[in-house]
Protein: Nif-specific regulatory protein
Organism: Magnetospirillum aberrantis SpK
Amino acid sequence: MRRDETRMLRDAGPDSALPLIGIYEISKVLGSTLDLEQALHDVLNILSSYLHMRHGAVVLVQPETERLEIAAVAGMSLKLARSGDLHYPMEAVSKVVQTGIPMLVPDTNDEPLLARYLEQSDGLDDETVSFFCVPIKTTGKPLGALSVERSWEDGARHVFEHDLRFLTMVATLVGQTVSLHHKVAADRSRLMEHNARLQKQMEEIKPAVPVQGLEDIVGNSEAMSRVFSHVQQAAPTKATILLRGESGTGKEMIARAVHVLSPRARKAFIKVNCAALAESVLESELFGHEKGAFTGAVSERKGRFELANGGTLFLDEIGEISSSFQAKLLRVLQEGEFERVGGGRTIKVDVRLVAATNRNLEEAVAKGEFRADLYYRLNVVPIFLPPLRERSGDIPLLSMYFLKRFNDENGRQMTFSEPALLALQRCYFPGNVRELENCVTRSATMCKNAVITEMDLSCKRDTCLSSVLWNTNRPAVPAGHPAAVPPAATPFTPPPVASVAPQPAPAAVPPIPPATVAEDDNAELEPLSGDLSERDRLIQAMERCGWVQAKAARLLGLTPRQIGYALKKHGIELQHL
């Protein structure tokens, strides 16, 4: 504060508007720095100019211990005050903090609680010292107290209420600042603890099932636990395994785990993507060719079946091969023998086959697009891999796993904020685990800070194009409407075909059909509206059927067990009519 303003404050009477200048200067000091101790010291200096203050102190309650501690002083030593050498009247201040009632002692000689404190006073014989102490608080319990000693010459008239009112306003400003600093400190501490916890999880991240071969498969959901169980049970056998699931669910990793957990682990693991090769090229890749078999065949070449002899052959996208090649593949699976392209010598091999597809093979068989005999030869031990939306609880773990791998590859030390992980967990991810990995890598690459926040995600900046996959041709709906929620893509429903492996319990409910005609005893019911969301169609069906699950299941084309899962999934309470 400038010298002229200080002089004006000293000379101002109690009814002057100049106390507002003091409030203004104090508010500027409190809002100009994040150093709370320095701000409180500057406030006491302003009070010293305005009140002719001899001594002043700010005492605060420590959030961790609930004990009073002197935070700032004026006119005395902070070190001596904290050590107790000055006998600061902490007992009197404690009463003010406990009761929230200001203390006013016009003459400190009349107050026993101040006796020891005054013994060291350096006051003059012809002056009287008064003691003010007001609670520092906002709306809750006091956060501390502000104490001031003011002196005047004997015989001088003084209105103490003006000083008390002024100090109460100052204490309120101080209380707001202290409260804000406490909140900032608490948020910072919470953020540091959260980051430390995430860092520890990322450093110690382990698969849910610590089994050799499954170390790189992250997930602890019930759906993945069933997959792990089926893999461990089927891997030691020679049975053909058919992996079913959407693209990006990790079928190749499961196939490799089957190989590692089998007796063939020391032999080769050969993989072929059937959808990436033309039929003629695929035949040469799988069976090999003789020299001169076709243009460009300048030497003899072994096929993937021969290379995988004694080991495991993984045929990805098996549902994409042509009808003519299906017959050739069927012979190999049945007889374990084949001829190279352009050759006549029969070659016998011992190969464990693991196939994978994201197609509905049962529908393809019904349409004549896939041979039924090959289907039965492949569908010995089916293992169904759940889409990521059906195991959203694994998303935080997978996200931290991918971020840890990004950090290792790029020499970074990045972490996720908790809101960011929650936002990822709410995402639809039509591309499943592969899309989640891309999302994490993209966010980590473009993030400028060490912590990836919710606003660093593409979906929060309207730059995520994956939503186009499910938004295309969808009618516009108001924000917050149930239909605005990303619809569950049609998951593969296990067919009622007998197999040697136990069928897993349904992890999720098939989508409710948009329009279904009632049958049997519900024949009089009208078809359900196709414009409603899945949850609304489910409620509509239950209401039409008098909340009888069996009838609603027939109306929707589901089983009673599936509709029970659907009601639980959407949080719909049964009505008792």
User: Anything to note?
Assistant: The longest helix spans residues 160-203. The mean pLDDT is 78. The two ends are 76 Å apart (CA to CA).
